[in-house]
Amino acid sequence: MQEIQSDTSDKGSIGGESKVHVFDSALQLVSGESLQPFSVAYCSWGKLNADKSNTILICHALTGDQFAAGDNPMTQRPGWWNTMIGTGKPLDPEKYFIICSNVIGGCSGSTGPASINPETGKPYGLDFPVITITDMVRAQEKLLDALGIDTLLTVIGGSMGGMQVLEWANSFPEKVFSAIPIAGSARHSAQNIAFHEVGRQAIMADIDWHGGNYHAEKTQPRKGLAVARMAAHITYLSETALTRKFGRNLQDRDALSYGFEADFQIESYLRHQGFTFVERFDANSYLYITRAMDYFDIAAEHNGKLAEAFTNSDTRFCVVSFTSDWLFPTSESIHVVRALNAAGANVSFVEIESDKGHDAFLLDEPEMFKTLNGFLSSVAKDRGLA
Amino acid sequence: MSESNASSTSISGRKDLQLICDLIPSESRVLDIGCGEGDLLDLLKLEKNIDGRGVELSQVGVNACVARGLSVVQGDADRDLKHFPDNGFDYAILSQTLQATQRPDSVLKELARIGKKLIVSFPNFANWRVRFYLMFKGRMPVTSTLDAQWYNTPNIHLCTIEDFIGLCDELDLKIEKSFILSNDKIKHVESSAGPIMNLVAEQALFVVSSHIEK
């Protein structure tokens, strides 16, 4: 196990050294196709205990990566869940062995559409098979298996991460002691599919996309991907948050320009979000991962009855939503909670009061931390850790 | 159901909880409707090692419960009980909550479907203090048990012990044990029926089992 124990001796900073596990075997996909070979990139924090009972798996969101804590070496920015991970925080590396892996289809180390297709020696592009949330979870399960980890103390994630959490409980209930889906859903809604389609069409309408073959053309559909990100970014916030942060404030000017420059701060902000995103994300990955979310519907594989996915489950669930989240609204979490109740599962459900929209799960939300601390302590105690 | 039930009927305090705790066998599966901040579930977990779940309307209450490690969901007795499975629990508890529901009869029916046994407690509106208050003051009774005004009380369906016994008959529910609380003392009574009990009891607590074919 030596190779998976990251060094936490460096006080204050918890480095996120990324490792890649290469599988020569095939990953069987829901579509019927398979990926072979395939790689899963991951980071880990803390130490695995002797009876291997303290592992927490973090599942990242649509544009997330394995660099949940510490500094992200690709962007030079802090990890996306530094608020949650660290000594004295809910996910404490002093207590738990924490893993976060890049999803299959992603673009920060795991096999995705930008990876080399062994059959052609060129990037897959649109030859990459369509993947699902289930496939992402299967790849994570293979990684844990390779690391010799049989059970997870908790699997936790927000947004698309929350979808993976529910899929873990559906696919591998015996391996999941507890599950924390945050701002998630058991199915992607029509509205969310609609937003994703806008994003995909923006990418595919970019002349530099070249039918997904832009690597060969030495181009990038930068404008399309930036527009996709801009549109999506609006859905991550709330009207209240936008008004508070930007209002109708003008950007670097005292008067309207009577043109189409970024007169308003919100325009400037969105343009910035779009253009920085392009630097770190692969456009085809964006297509594939949004598609995986659109296809997600756990009930569909259980005759439309979500409760059947969790029948006889021993997993303890803690479902979390936010009041101002209109992308994955509380109603979606309640839908999951009702199914879990109907299945007789052990479930807690907390709706956190926040005006920060869907992105609240990434932010400093003391009430969420308090809830998760309580839930995790109780779970750790039941697992014999505390 | 409301977050303020506990405070509007607070006379029995922990005594009420301890009695319920004593009534429930170890290792039972328990559903507490209107569980507040989880005091009863916590006590039951500690003393009886039960497998407990809670439903609470107030988000503040739910968050407090989950933060102390209890399995509680935000929900409403009137709306959400239908999502629980038949006979999913050994005991379903409705402590000081019945009188705050929209339809006490439907809530009782649902609980009888979900729980093998029910424990129901409520303030008795036929208590002599309440009667005297109405008779002599001519205004809606405000007592230490019912300490809210008519316009802001969460207790929208107050009933008497006789009313409750009548409803149980109508719903084919069998009362197994009866307790009354008066002058801050809890008393086990063979039968809570009759005018005297209905006059002296400030609160009543019943263990009820279902006759309904499941």
TrEMBL record, chain A:
The biological processes this protein is annotated with in GO are: homoserine metabolic process; methionine biosynthetic process
Indicate whether Transferase appears among the record's keywords. yes
**Which pathway does it serve?**
Amino-acid biosynthesis; L-methionine biosynthesis via de novo pathway; O-acetyl-L-homoserine from L-homoserine: step 1/1
Top-level division of the source organism's lineage: Bacteria
GO MF terms listed in the record are: homoserine O-acetyltransferase activity
EC number per UniProt: 2.3.1.31
Please indicate if the UniProt record lists Cytoplasm as a keyword: yes
**One Pfam match:** Abhydrolase_1
Which residues are named in the active-site annotation? S159, D325, H358
Role, per record: Transfers an acetyl group from acetyl-CoA to L-homoserine, forming acetyl-L-homoserine.
Q: Which NCBIfam families match?
A: homoserO_Ac_trn, PRK00175.1
Can you say what this protein is called? Homoserine O-acetyltransferase
Organism equals PS1 clade bacterium
TrEMBL record, chain B:
Pfam families the record matches: MetW
* UniProt-listed InterPro entries: Methionine_synth_MetW, SAM-dependent_MTases_sf
> Which CDD domains has this protein been placed in?
AdoMet_MTases
The record's section on Gene3D superfamilies has: Vaccinia Virus protein VP39 (3.40.50.150)
Domain of life of the organism encoding this protein: Bacteria
Query: Where is the secretion signal located?
Result: none
State the name under which the record lists this protein.
Methionine biosynthesis protein MetW
Recite the lineage of the species. Answer: Bacteria, Pseudomonadati, Pseudomonadota, Alphaproteobacteria, PS1 clade
Gene symbol?
metW
